[in-house]
Each structure stands twice: as C-alpha cells, then as structure tokens.
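Usage

Read records sequentially. Each one opens with the input sequence:
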Amino acid sequence: MEKIILVHVTGGDRPGLTAELSSVLAGFEVDVLDIGQVVIHNFLTLGILIRLPADSQPVLKDLLFKAHELGVTMKLHPLDEDDYAKWVGFADKQRHIITLLARSISAEQIAAITNVVSESGLNIDTIHRLSGRAPLDCNDYECSRACVEFSVRGTPTDIAAIRSKFLDISAELVADIAFQEDNIFRRNRRVVAFDMDSTLIQAEVIDELAKEAGVGDEVSAITESAMRGELDFKESLKKRLALLEGLDESVLQTVAERLPLTEGAERLISTLKNLGYKIAILSGGFTYFGNILKEKLGIDYVYANELEIKDGKLTGHAVGEIVDAEKKAELLQSIADQESISLQQVIAVGDGANDLPMLNLAGLGIAFHAKPKVKKGARQAISTLGLDSILYLIGLSDRDIV
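and closes with the structure output:
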C-alpha cells in the first residue's frame, strides 16, 4: 500500500541543500505531491509532500541519513488518504490577499490581522514580504516602506465586516490593510486612472489660484466642504470659479511651477508604463495643469475642466461640461471600452467624495490619503505610504519595481 509522507526540514541554509535532498528522492523515483520552501535570514524551512511505495524504508533511511550529513533537522509526518483528500478539496476554496502596508511592520499589526483572519474562518496559506530588506539605520523613504502579503483561503461570510475591522486596525496601528479577492484580474490590470488634485499632486490647484487672487480662505472653505461630500461638486466649482474672475492668465504658469508631485508618483507611473499600463487623469481640476503632467509623466488620457479665458483673464467660468463624480465614472467606463478591457482590469485612485463612484466602479478602487467618509466608502485605502505602494497591491515586490 502506498504511503503519503510530509518531509519537514529546518536548519541553516546553504547552496545545494535542496538539490542534495531531492536527489535522494530522485534515486527512488519518488512522486512529489507538493513542495514549499522559505528562507529567513539564512534559516531554511522546507516541506516536501511525497508518495512512496509500500516498502518505504530504504528511501526514508537514506533521506534521514542525508539530513544528518547536511546538519539539518528532518521530521517525517505520515498522512492518511482521507486527510490528503480533504487537503486537496480545500484547494477549491476562495482565496483572498491581505496586504499590510506601513512605515515599519510591528508584531501588534500582525497579531491584529491574523486574529481577524482566524475569527472570519479563513486559513493562512502563505505570508511573504514584498518590500526590500530594511537596514537597522533607516533614514529615508526608500527603506521606511514595508509591506507583507498574506494569502488566505476560505469563504468569508461578511466581507464588509472584515474590511471594517481592518479599517479600525489601520487607524489604531498606523498601517493600511487591503483585502482583495485573489483572481485573474488582480494580476492582469491594464489601466490606472488618477484624480489629480491632492492625489497625483500634493495641492488643490483651485486653492492655489485663489491665493493668487486674494480669495484663498473663501475658496478653501468651499473646497473642503465639497471634498467631504457636504456640497454638490458642480455648484461648489461654480462658486469657486466665480471668485477667480479677472485673474491674469499668466498666474496659471506661476502656480504650475510650484505644484509638488505626490510621494512615489513618478516611481509608480514609470513602473506601470514599463509594464504596458495606460495612465489616465480624471479630474475635477483643470486641463491646463493636467496637460503639463501629461507631458512630464507620459500620461495617456487627460479629462478635466477647461478654464474659460478671455483677453488674458479668467472669466470665472468653465468651458463645456463639468467633470464631476458621475462624469468621472462615465469616463472610466469609456477608457475601458477604448482599451477593450474589463472594468475589473482598471485601477482608480482618488481622495475626495467626488471620486467614490469611479473608485467603486473600478476593479481596484483606492482612497488615497482620503477623508474618513471616502475611506469608509471605498473598498481599499492608503494613508501611510506614497502612491508607489499601489504596486504592492497588484502583487509586485521591490525587486520588480523600476
């Protein structure tokens, strides 16, 4: 009668160790049913699930002898066929990916996440680090960026409740926790659409223009109210634009020169462009500034509001249809259609209430450094790291990133 045995190896790692152990098995023409290996700080954990003939003593004897020779610990765990059949059946269960993002990872964060996983009836298959190895004397952004990814199996009964718990943990422990279904679309995104103001750039352009016009406080108050979802976006934009009437056209360039890109924006976009992604700006801001970013970053689509200018002065009005929340969602669908892709292959990123429709329409919608109402309304949120941390959410490690 055949035997199924899990071979569990631990000990100091060195080149060729797995090759020598597997060569012993190869000499007996052993079937390998599963294999997994992880190395943390030169310490190896290796598991090999094997099927052996009834007379298994020779192979096990040679295997144990080789382990002793290599100076590693080996344990053999026999499995009966019923247990193996249950394990095989478990492979058909849903899989989700939990991504932990923070400046540094703490045991408290790991404990909180794994408690939610356990309470939700899910089981962790794998945990691995996507961020690079952090030196102990970290003093800059490159090394103060940490990400750990959990692959979990099972059918969650209440996904909204899981996300709510993760949102509470994020606020308490200064981290971001994303919870996504692990499906083919997660590894096959093709378009990323950004809001511009306070997302791709670290400013609200209309507020900067208002400062130049001497009406900064009035416009900022309206902007804040609109971003919190307390005012209709179209009406709020009209009110703010009216306060800019008479502003000289030359001020646009002055403002454009001082607009800072958001942390990680260039790294994110250059990496995505190299991977063949199309990049879009869908903004309630203005085309003048969106087109400057288009040239600087190689953006493919820009949709925003056009300022009306007559005789070198802003009239206080916009030209054509205003890009509001509904228009952003409509444009997102249009871009997906033009690219002949599913909306599941689209990522949308924004910070304001007027971004929520497009965030929830996209396969991956991310509230970026957003107001509480927006974070709660979106499926994913990032508040601790820069825009380039989005690369972790699509499964890329630091080794993959430009």
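Summary fields computed downstream for this record:
- The radius of gyration is 27 Å.
- Residues 159-173 form the longest helix (15 residues).
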